[in-house]
Amino acid sequence: MSYLLLTLLLLPLVGSGLVFAWRNTSSKYLALGIALIQMLLTFYVVSDFDFNPTVDSVLQYEINEPWSQFIKSKLHFGIDGMSLLLLLLTNILMPIIILSSFNENVSYKNTFYGLILLMQFGLVGVFTALDGLLFYIFWEITLIPIWFIAALWGQENKRLEFTTKFFVYTFVGSLFMLAGLIYVYNHSASFALTDLYNANLGETQQIVVFWFIFFAFAVKLPVFPFHTWQPDTYTYSPTQGSMLLSGIMLKMAIYGVLRYLIPITPTAIFGISGQIVIILAIVGIVHGALIAIIQTDMKRIIAYSSFSHVGLMVAGIFSSAVLTLRGTFTIEGAEGALVQTFAHGINVAGLFFCADILYKRFKSRDIRQMGGLAKVAPKFAVLFLIIILGSMGVPLTNGFIGEFILIKSIFDFNVLASVIAGLTVILCAVYLLRFYGKAMFGQGDEAVLSTAKDLSAVEFSVLASIAVFVIVLGVFPQPVIDMVSSSLKFIYTSMIN
Amino acid sequence: MSVLIIVFLTAVAALFSGVFEQGKFARYIGIFGLIIALYVSFLPEASFFAQYRHMYDYTANTALFTKISLVTTLLLFFLGGFAFSNHRSHQSELYALMLFALCGGIILFGFQNLVTLFLGIEILSIPLYVMAGANKTDLRSNEASIKYFLMGAFATGFLLFGIAFIYGSTGTFDLYKIQEFTITNPKNIMLILGVIMMLCAMSFKVALAPFHMWSPDVYAGSPSLITAFMASVVKISGFFALFRLMTIGFSGVTAEWINILGVFLIITLFLANAMGLAQTNAKRMLAYSSVSHAGYIGLVFFGMNALSTYTLAFYLFAYSLSTVGVFMCLIWVEKIKRETSFGAFKGLAKTEPLLAVVATISLLSMAGIPLTAGFMGKFSLFAQALTKDDNTFLVIVAVLGSAISIAYYLRLIIAMFFFKESTFKTAEKVTITYNIVAVVIIASLVILGVYPDFFAKQFGL
Fold first, then answer.
1. Looking at beta carbons, which residues of chain B come within 8 Å of A185?
2. Which residues of chain B, if any, have pLDDT below 50?
3. DSSP 3-state helix, strand, coil percentages of chain B (rounded to 5)?
4. Burial label, B21 (beta-carbon count in 10 A; 0-12, 13-18, 19+)
5. Do the strands A73-79 and A60-68 form a parallel or antiparallel pair, or are they unpaired?
6. Exposure of B183 by Cβ count < 10 A (0-12 exposed, 13-18 middle, 19+ buried)?
7. What pTM, to 2 d.p., does this model score?
8. Distance from CA of A177 to the nearest CA of B (A)
9. Prediction ipTM score
10. In degrees rounded to 5, what are phi and psi of residue A60?
11. Is A1 helix (H, G, I), strand (E, B) or coil?
12. CA-CA-CA-CA torsion for A259, A260, A262, A268, nearest 10 degrees?
């Protein structure tokens, strides 16, 4: 049993309990401290990690303890390269997200920060669980805190309506996933990952299971027709809620697709279902980008841009899965998707924080009412530009390499598909540059501009740390690819067998 | 059987304690008696009491369900002091009636003869007719009582008719002899008619649609503590009786009734959840939620295996605990606001955080959110039903049902947490007993959700 992983799991839970109990206005420092310790622990795991494992040692730091005699499920946790990448994303973003709220006068501080840490507990659980039921349980645990965060600290008007829609939508999806997992469980020996992989389902059974499980991921990602909850929820959540939702929570679904869906139901993916998903994802890419272009609310622009980017990742994963099943073993699409997952998580959190800064200066989310901030806030203008360029996937930023690999992988699958999917690069430049141009240059309201200040220390430290990641990962993306390739090979090999 | 005797004696003592001090002792007598009964239920049963002339059979399962209903009743008795504090007189009678109804339930857990089944159901039901009308000055309470009585009498008619058919075709009242007969003669038309009649009668008792019409009005009209009793203990008794009857007595003709039950479940799950969504009153919402839970519990008949009884017990225990958890909050609000619309709960979390938390965790447990007991219960039911591919449709309906249900549970949680102004005065505080019960319920729901085997160990499995 690995005590290091146990600490990683329990620290946020215990921490959230402490923060809840400590009814003090300075509870934010406690929360930040816990998140920082968690981040350092994760860095230690990275430094200690075996990046070139043999087939047997893909999983490291395993915990495998008995749980219930009635449910054939074990407390089985472990870290492989893919888990590590997402753990890293979670635990890097958490202190940034907590820090980003320091300037605000958050009401009920201890509840707010307690919920964020509770969320972190759920996320770490999702990314390290190696048992179907545990995965589902942690998946659901993350839903409760984010719902409370979105609903309690969101925009006053309409927040209940939209957050309830969000909750019900994702809950329906999750329940279908549960039914799908139980279905597989009844044909396998237990909920253990390897048993789920070897469940030997027939073709029709696999198709049923595929759509049951995919529905949950499709809602969370979101994939094309299931996205209606997303823009509203992102818009009306508090900034920290939007950062958590788009930065990390969405990635649970990418992870779930790779870890559970693809290896369990290869026959379904080989059939028509995999291609339907690719088509839906590509429709989503174009649909999301086109809607983003006509939006005037900046949070909605970011929400639709996130929707569009996610489509590309899904299309990439499935196109390399379909190619592999057709006989050419390739993990490129999945690699690209994971690199993009990491990059997008950081960029979108940065974008939401920039939107928050703009909102504080202009007191409006409407980009038509903005302009000229670059003159009074040059530091902000530079950092914001770096994040915007990262999101657009300009070479030498973190967004580029993932997008490149993804489009190449879709190209291998189908040329026409890659051409349509490639539109995302152009369209993304259109709406993001328009957003940036409107907000930072052009004619601004003089009265607002004369009182607007440049970044405060907290804002600067948040944006600067994000910008560092944007550039460093843009110049050296190889470590991320190395991190995930061995575990992806393992997963895709399990899929073929 | 000794537990039954203890509970019965306690009930009599509680009844006669009404002579003194307007019956304030009845509650303490009840608590004392129930604790002793609970203690005795954990002891091995003396052989003298275990079997009574093929009428009553005290098996391990009987003991398990007896324990669950004793624990639930005990929790309700702790709440009784606050819940009944407006009832100047007749308190002792109410407590005594609850204990008598519990006796009926305990008889149902061990019936081995259709006559015992009938006796158990009547002993369970008749006190309930009276208790539903306990608020004598309240018109809705009177309506509840009359409605319950008329519907109950109707169901009794069905039950007796069914028993008559079964006796006519098999020539016996004994559960195990009926089982032998059904295995050898599964095509007997009279027998099947009797089985279906009894299924309908029992569906009345556990409020399965389309025989659920009485339940929302009765639940909403009765005093809240009594409603909690109906939703928990009565449901446990009714369901285990149905379970014993159908899986032991009529196991030979399963194919004849299982599809009818499946249709009942589908109607229940859709109707109850859709109606629950339309409610504006928390108490009526909980009534429909209770009906919908009958639908989930009904899944236990599909995909029967060795663990079915355990699954049923676990689900019923989790459900009872969460029912008590929600109702203790509702009773408090009703006492202060004199109404139970969702609006009455606004801002409860500000003045009584513990009460709001216990209600929230209970509601999440009813909805089946992980790390609560309700999730483990629902999971086991779904997993069991999905062992057969034929049941996939039924499970999809149940999944959709719970998805709808979360929407109306959320409304109560939203009312408690998401309003800036509290409509409660900070001076109104709940009693210490109340807080203790709240902590016990939260702890049990979470422990059972994280470590479900705890239940099996405590209840001797």
1. 383
2. none
3. 80, 0, 20
4. exposed
5. antiparallel
6. exposed
7. 0.90
8. 10
9. 0.84
10. -125, 165
11. coil
12. 180
